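Let's sit down with a protein and look at its sequence and fold side by side. Please make up or recall a protein chain and show it to me in full. Label the sequence line and the structure token line clearly, so we can match residues to local backbone shapes. Go ahead whenever you are ready, and we will take it from there.
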Amino acid sequence: QVQLVESGGDLVQPGGSLRLSCAASGSILSLYVIAWYRQAPGKQREWVANDIGGTGRYADSVEGRFAISRDNAKNTVYLQMDSVRPEDAGVYYCNGGSHSEPARLPWGQGTQVTVSS
């Protein structure tokens, strides 16, 4: 089973940029779908973006500002966050699986994104 570890979270100013990484212990070729989720304090975890076989899909709240990508050679998936807003703050998680079971792996620790001036 592939294990995923998130990193790259930091304090970022509104309007700033940040790149999150999701590193896999095994080949991400075994994960057709890799997704980013986030959870703000007191809120439920919400879906942010998918990479489905190399094609990105995005929640309306982040479309046009975030970009998901993968590097199969490095077994890593990225979330490029541009034009960050205060409502983007939260703990970001990655998960993966198949089209029918897109988040089949255990949830990790996530990485904290703080948006503040």
